């Protein structure tokens, strides 16, 4: 049971880091630009497909990753110039309708280009296999690499936001966008950079996950729902909140799916416990969100406005 707890705890942390990479961009876009982007999950999907495509062309996952990340950034910049920029002065309902339509178009676009069948990518040889972490318990090297990469990105993002001039502008824009524009900052350029960075982070998350889960259409939809839960729990516009909330959601979801049926076996028959546990497990993160919002309606670390 201890080994299972450690294993699933690491899986939960890795899932949380993945959610943070996607949520960090979305919370900045929503917090700074005040744009609800339902196509953000599709940018995660596009990153996965780009990594899979270039890994297949070059025969190397690392080269595929190096190609996918800047292309995900370029895709985000183009998307902002062609579509998102026209939504800044529109209502949230208009933003939801347009970005939902964009999400459907991107999902169908990958079907046209790559088909509906999942695309798998071979695990990098240098990161294949597993290493001992506790007694006889072993853990996949690649999942540890995802953890390390996510923590590195989180540290770099914290430094960029709290120690650079651009980060100062982002924090100011999240608090008072009109004042930042009045002080002479090119707000459209700032928005372009924010949206591009968010798309790049989502694309990087998708590219890192494609050796673990195959690239397939609609793969970003589930991630998008969980990402919105993360930014609501953490506080809209807060990177620190997104990080803490992503780890919480990742751990609660992973541990709940594993240990829920086990705990219920002490109360009911094994078959009924397994069925009930599978039914209740997906609800745990929403119960967590409701409980946190009941105590802190603005989230754990709300941005002061």
TrEMBL record:
Subcellular location: Cell membrane
Transmembrane segments: 12-36, 48-75, 96-121, 141-161, 190-213, 219-236, 243-264, 284-303
GO cellular component: plasma membrane
CDD domains the record matches: TM_PBP1_LivH_like
Keywords recorded for this protein, A-Z: Amino-acid transport, Cell membrane, Membrane, Transmembrane, Transmembrane helix, Transport
Primary location recorded for the protein, binned into one broad class: membrane
Topology of the protein relative to the lipid bilayer: Multi-pass membrane protein
InterPro entries, alphabetized: ABC_transp_permease, BCAA_transport_permease
GO biological process: amino acid transport
GO molecular function, one term: transmembrane transporter activity
Superkingdom to which the source organism belongs: Bacteria
Entry's family note: Belongs to the binding-protein-dependent transport system permease family. LivHM subfamily.
Designated name of the protein: Amino acid/amide ABC transporter membrane protein 1 (HAAT family)
Organism: Cereibacter azotoformans
